[in-house]
Protein 1
Amino acid sequence: MQRFRRLVAAIALAATATTTVAACGGGDNGDNSDAKVLKLWHYESENSAMGIGWNRAIEIFKSEHPGVEVRFERKAFEQIQQNAGMIINSSEGPDIMEYNKGNATAGLLSSQGLLADLSSEADKRGWAGKLSPSLQTTARYSDKGVMGSGKWFGVPNYGEYVTVYYNKDLFQQNGVKVPTTMAEMTAAMDTFVGKGVTPLGMAGAEYPAGQLFYQLALSKGDRQFVDNYQLYKNPVDFKADPLKYGADTFAQWVQKGYVAKNSASLKAEDMGTAFIGGKVPMIVSGSWWYGRFKTEMKANWDTFLFPGNTLQAGSSGNLWVVPENSKAKSLAYDFIDITLRPEIQDLIGNNGGVPVAADASKISDPKDRKLIEDFNTVSKSDGLAFYPDWPVPGYYDVLVSGFQGLINGSKSPDQVLDTIAKPYADGVKEITGK
Amino acid sequence: MAVSETVAATPPAATPTPPAPSRRRRGRNAAYWLYLLPGAALFLLVIGAPLVGTLYLSLTKWSGIGDPRWVGLDNYQQLLHDDVFWASFRNTVWMLVAMVVVPTLLGLLLAAVLFDVIGRRFKPRTAAALRAAFYLPQVLPVVVAGIVWGWILRPDGAFNSLLDAVGLGALRHDWLGDPGTALPAVMAVMIWVQIGYPVVVFMAALQRVDPELYEAAEVDGANWLHRFRAITLPQIRPETFVVALTCTIAALKVFGPIFALTRGGPDNATNVPSYFAYYTFFKKLQVGYGSAISMVLTLIIVVVAGIFIWMQARSERRDRGF
C-alpha cells in the first residue's frame, strides 16, 4: 500500500511538473529572435518543385542564421490534414508548417486562435505586394475563419490552376487545331467524336468532374459570382446560371460523347494515365499534373487555358503558417521571406512548379515558361476562382456523387443541382450562422 | 408408516446440504478477481473510456478544435430525419445478405460437399486444398482486395474484357459507377471475401460429428440430403450461431471494402453507417454528429449480438432438455 501511495505521488508530481512547464511555455509570445532552433514541417516530396525550392531555402536560411539549427521533418499530407489542430495546440508542434488553405483548414485553426497573425509581417516584409489579390484570398481569414478578408494567417509561395492538357500528336493525326474559343473547342471535340475518339478524359469518382463543371460555370460567371459562391457574400441560386449552365453543358457533353458515359467510377489517376498513354487527346485538370507528364509522357503535349474563360479554377498553393505556440516566430518569418525570394521562386519554376512571384524570363524551358506565364496572366487579371468543393466541409464528396449521376445518366442536371444545393446551403449556414 | 418412521429417524446431520463456504474459501475466490483486474483495466482503457467519450461527444456540436458545445439530443433528432443515414442502413440490410446470409448458406453447403463428398471420394488433402483456396480472400488485407476488385470492375477492367472474350460484349458496363449495379457488385465482392470463413468453421465442426451417426443413417437408407438435414445441421448448430454472429457484426460495421471500392457512391448507393460516420467525422468535421452515428451503430451491434447470444443459450438449453 505504501508503495502504491508512493507511485501515485510520483505520477501526480510528474503531471504537475509537466503542467507547470507547459504553462511557462504558454506565457511566452514566442517572438524570440534569440531562438536557436527552427522546427520546420512540410509535406512536399523531395524531388517535387516545391521540395527542391524549399531545400535550397533551408540552406540559405542556415547560412544567414549561423548557430541556428533547422529541425526539418517531412510529414504526410493526411497526417497534417487530420491532426494539425492537436499538433499545433501542443508544445511539441513545429515553429513553421505547410498547411492546407481554405475555410475548413487554415480558416478553422485561425478562428480558434491557433495560428499567429502575420499581418504586420506581411506589410513590413512586402509579402502583400508580391501576391495578387486572388492569391491573397487564401492567406487572409476573418474572425470566423472565412477566407478572403481579415488578418493574414498564412503565406503561399506557389500557385496552381486548372488548364487543358492536350496531346499534340493526336491533334495532328486527326487534323484538329488548338482551340481558342468555346466554339472551336466543341468543334474540335466533334471532330474527335466523328473519328471514334472520346475527346476528354474524365474521372467521375474524384475531383475532375467537379472541376470541369466549375470551369463551364465560370465561363458564364464573374468575380461577384465567385465571391458569392466561395465567400458567401450573397446567396447563390443553383437553378440559375452560371451553375445551371455548368450542369446543363456538362450533361450535353456526356450526351454528345465528349465525355465517356462509363467514366463515373474512374479515379483521377486513371484519367492521368489514360492521357499519358495517349488514349485521350485532352484532359481538363490542374497544374499539379505538369511535372509528371513532363517526366512520363512520350507523346508531344502542351497546355492551353480553358477557352473563353477569364476565370479559372485555381488558387495559391498551400500555406506557410506559424503556430501561435511557436517559440521562434522571428526565424519562421525569416524563412517565409526566403521562400519568396526570386532565387527560390525561379528554382520552383525551373522544376515544373508554378511560383507566385517568379520572373518568367528566368525560366529556361519554354514549356515551363508558358505554364507560368499562363498562371501569371490569370493571377494578375484576378482570374483565380478557387475550387468548387471549397465552400463547405465535406462538399468534395457531394460534388463527386452529384456528377457521377450526370455521367452515368442516373440524374438530370436539375436533380444534380438539387443534390448539391442543399449541402451547400446547410454548410454555409453552419459556418456563417445565417 | 414404517417408511415415515425411517425418514423421521434419519439424523438431520445426514441431509446433503451444501457446506457453508468457509471464510477462507471466500477469500480464495475473491483472490481470483485479482486476475481479472488487468483485463478489466484494459477494457476500461480501450473500450470503456472511448465509449463514454464518444457518448459525450454525440451530445455536443464540435468541429474537432476548440471546446465542444453541449446540444443534448439534437444530433440524434437530426439523425432521425437524415435521408443518407436511413439509406446507409438500407444498404446495411443488403450487406447482411452478402456477408451473412449467402456466405453462411453457401459455406454450409460447400463445407458439407467438401467434407462428405470430396473428402470421401478423393484424398482428404484435396478437400483441405480446396478449403484453403476458399479461405484465401480472408487472408488478404481487405483494402488490397478492394483495390484489386476495383481494377477488375472498372470500365476497361478484366471483367468487361472477359465479357468481350466470351461474346457478351453487349453487357459491358461501368459496374461501380452506376447506382443500379454498384451495390450488387460490392455485394458480390463481399461474398467472395466472406465465403472462406464459414467453410473453414463448418468443416472443423463436421470433423467432431460422430461418424457412427452417418453410418447408422445410411444403414437406415437415408440419402445425403436426409443426412444433411437430420444430422449435419443440428450437430453443427453452435458453430452456425458463431458464424452468423461474427458475420453479422462484420456486416454491420463494414468499412474497408466500401472505402476502397466506392467511397459510398455513386449517389450513396453503397453508403453504409460506418463510412457515413467516418465521412461526417473527418470530412465534414461534424464530430458530434459523427459520434451520434457511431453510438447508434454501436447500440445496434450490441442489441443484435445480445439477441444472438440469447438465442444460442436458449438453443443449448433446449438441446440439453431443460
Note: The longest helix of chain B spans residues 83-121.
Protein 2
Amino acid sequence: MSIFSPGARHALPVMLFLLCGFAAPLLAVIAFSFVPSRTFSLWQPWTLENYAEIFNSSSYISFLWSLGLAAATVVILALICYPVAFGLARVFGKYATLITLLFTLPLFVSENVRIYGWILFFIKKGVLLGTLESLFGYAPESILFTTGLTLLGMVYVYLPFMLFPMTLGVSMVPQQVRDAAFDLGATRWQVFKEVDLPLAMPGIVIGFLLTFVLAVGAIAEAKVLGGQRIIPIAHDIEIAFTYAQNWPLGAALSVLLMLVVGTFVLIVLRRFDLDSILGRR
Amino acid sequence: MNDFTQTRRDFLKNSAVATAALAAGGALGMRPAAAARTNELNILCWEGYNSAQVLDPFRTSTGATVRAESLTNDPTMINRLRAGETNIWDLINVNNPWARKVMFPEKLIKPIDRARFEPYFDKMLPGFKPPYKWAMDESGQHLLGMAQRFGPFSFVVNTDKISRASAEDQGWDLWNDPANDKKYGIQASDDWNVFDLCCISGFDPFREHTEEEVAKYTDTAKRVFKGARMVGDLATMNQALVSGEIDFYLTGGTYSCSPARADGNLNIRAITPLKGPMAGGKGGISWTEITSVVNNPNLSTHAEDFLEYVQSPEMSHTVAFAEGTFNPVTQMGNPACFDLFTKEELEIIQWDSLEEEMARSVEYDIVPDYDRLLDIMSAAKREASGA
C-alpha cells in the first residue's frame, strides 16, 4: 500500500494523533533518561550516568518489591477468581448479573477512598479491632502498615481486572465439549486440566497480564495501607520526579520498568497464540 | 465488508464535514482562550486557596472564571512552571525560599508593585514587616509576592502519652531514644524529613555538611526509618495518633495537626523543641507561604487584584480556616482581622504558644547539599523496606 493510497491518507489523522498522544511522551521519557542528572533540558550532551546510578544503588529492592508483590497478587487472584468466574459462567444462573454488579460497584468509587476505608476498618479502635475489643474484650495488635496488608490492598483493588477477563475465558468453553469429555469417562480433574483450563486460557492470560501490568505500577496500597514499610518502584519514580527534582533519574527508572514489564509481556505472548487470545480463532 | 454500508463518496463527504466541524470547534475553542485573560485567573496553590469559600466571592465580584489547582509539595508546583506551564498559571503559592532563591532567578515569576502591596505588610504580625526577607529578591529591590499563612513545623505528639513540657525539653532526642522504637510515625514530606533528620543528627540542616556529618546523617536516616511504625500523609498520622497506633510523629506542626485539634482532639499538639542545633541554638523550623505572580506572557488582569483580595481581614480569616488544614495568617497583626478569630479557632491553631514557638524556630530555607541528603534518605527508606 503506497503512502498516497486513500487508505493511508485517511489513516493519517489517526496516525498523527497516536504519534503525538502516545509515542511522543514515551519518546520524551526515553530521551530524558539520557540527559545529565538533575537537569531539565534535552538539548545537551547525552549520557548513561542515570542508568549507572540505578545499577549502583539499592533501586533493585524497589523493583523486586514491585515485581514480587505483582506476581503474588496475580497468583492469589487467580486462585480466588477462577472459582468465582466458573460460578458466574456456569453455576449462579440468574444471580450472575447481581453478583457481577457487586464486583463492579466498587469500581465507581475512587481507589484512594476505598483504601482509606480499609484503614478505618483495620486501625486500632477501628471497625474490626474496636468491635473485637468492645464485644469480647480482646485487643490484638493492629496489622495495619505491614507488607501483608499492602498485598491485601492490591488483591482487593485489582480483583475485577482478573475476574472479568477470566469469566469471559471460562464462558468461552463450549458446554458440549465438557459433556463429551465426561461421557467419554474423564474425571472432574481431567476435564478441568484438559478442557476447561486450555479453552479458557485466552481470558485467563489476559487477566494475568492486565493484573500484573497494573499491579507493577501500584503505589497507593503501599503508601497508605503499607505505611511505606516498602517502597515500590512507582514510588521511587514519583520521588525522583518531585522532591528529588531529578527528571532524568525518574525517566531512567521508568524506562527500565517499561523494559522489564515489556519483556515479560512479550515472553508470555510468545507462549500463547495472540490470535486465539484475541478471540480470532 | 457487507456490514459497512457507507459508500466511499459518503465517507469522504462525512469526513470532510467532520473535519470542518472539528476545525471550527478548535477555532471557537481558541478564541475565548486567547481573549479570556481579562476574564479568567488560574492559581497553583497549596490546599485552602482552592476552596469555594475563598474563590466564590472573588468570582462573584469580578465575573471571572477562577481555576485553582491544589498540590501538596513545592517542587511539583515549580516543576509545572518549568515544564512550560508559565503560560497557563497566573499565581503560584509556595513556601518561603522558593520565590527568592529559585523561581525569580529562573524567571518563572515576576515582581509585584511595591507601592501597592507594602502597606499590607505594614499591617502584618511584627515578624513580617517590610521589607520581609522572603518576599524580596536577593538584591532587596523587587517584591516577589505576598506572605499569608505560616507556622512552626517540627513534630507532633499525643500529650496523653508524652507531656508538652517533656517533648519540648527532649526535642529531637525523642528519635535518639531506642525505647521509642515503633512508637512514632513519619509524615512523608521529603524536604522536611531531610531537615528533621539533620536536627536529630545534631546539626543545622541549612548549611553545607562535612563528610562526618553526612556519615552520621546516613546512620540516623537508616535508624529512624527502620524504627518508624509507618510513613504516610498527615491524615494517616493524625488518625494513628488519635487511635493510639503511635505516640508522636516526625515532621508536623500546627498545619498538620490542626484538623485533629479541630475535631476536638486537643491532646494532639504541635511541639517546637526548646533548643536545637540551628543558628542561635534554636530547635524548630517554621514556614511561610509566599504567593507570587507567574511570569505569564499573557497574564490575567486579575492576578494582582486577587493578591490584594486575600489580604483583607475577612478573607485572611477565611484563608486561615478554609477547608483542609488550619493555620495562623500574617494579617492577625491587624486587629480587624484578629478579632474575627473565635476562642476555639485560636485554640486549634495553638495561638497560646505561637509567638514563643516562632521565636524558637529558624525559617525554612534551601539546604545546600539537599540532593545528596535526599538521595541518602530515599535509599535509607528503601533499605528499611528491604530489611
Note: Chain B has 16 helices and eleven strands.
